[in-house]
Input
Amino acid sequence: MGEIIRHTYSVCPVCLKRIPAMHRVYGKEIYLEKTCTKHGDFSSIIWRGLRDINTWRGDLPAIAEGENENCPHACGLCSEHQQDTCCVLLEVTKACNLHCSFCFAEGGKGEDIP
Output
């Protein structure tokens, strides 16, 4: 049994109901594991390799005012800015066939190029 590193929520891939989920480490891989009371258990790999997932999660402390001399052109999102990120669309595959009514990525419209 792998180590649980985070609790989160996901959706059942069958009924799209919001369900509890967890990130669990097995060796150098991290899986998203979830259980729908109606459709059972699901597990999918979400991270592979040596690079630490925490460096990609974005849980970095905010940059304090006056702390970054590159502001406002190369500081990222600091406290002196008037806008924040709202969402990220990272297209991983065009083979998606879930046809989620809320998806704005228009997945499933083509085939992946090998």
